[in-house]
């Protein structure tokens, strides 16, 4: 099972990528808010994440773009 430290590391590593995805979805004004909400959601639902179904990065991308 993934941990909050893995979520944090992913956030630090891929923040700019998630920001670009968010900008495409909601525009540049709201993009940072969407990324922040995405990671709050990821932390909230981390116990439901199943690494056998997808990588953590893929799971977070689905949250951003969903």
How is this structure best described in words?
The chain has helices spanning 4-26, 28-44, 56-65. 76% of the residues lie in helices and 0% in strands. By secondary structure, the chain is an all-alpha fold. The radius of gyration is 11 Å and the shape is globular.
Topology:
Elements: H1 4-26, H2 28-44, H3 56-65
In short:
The chain is mainly α and 66 residues long. 76% of the residues lie in helices and 0% in strands.
Which descriptors apply to this entry?
single chain, 66 residues, mainly alpha, 3 helices
Strand content: under 5%
- How helical, in percent, are the residues? over 70%
- Look at the structure and give the mean pLDDT: 94
- Count of DSSP-assigned helices: 3
Total strands: 0
Largest sheet: none
Task: Give the low-pLDDT segments.
Answer: none
Derived structural class: mainly alpha
Coarse shape: globular
Order of helices and strands: HHH
Radius of gyration, in Å, reads 11 Å
- Roughly how many Å apart are the termini? 23 Å
């Amino acid at each position: 099972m993934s941990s909050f430290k893995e979520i944090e590391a992913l956030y630090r590593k891929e923040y700019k990528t998630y920001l670009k995805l968010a900008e495409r979805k909601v525009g540049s004004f709201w993009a940072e808010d969407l990324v922040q909400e995405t990671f709050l959601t990821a932390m909230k639902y981390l116990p439901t994440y199943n690494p056998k179904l997808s990588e953590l990065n893929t799971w977070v991308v689905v949250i951003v773009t969903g």
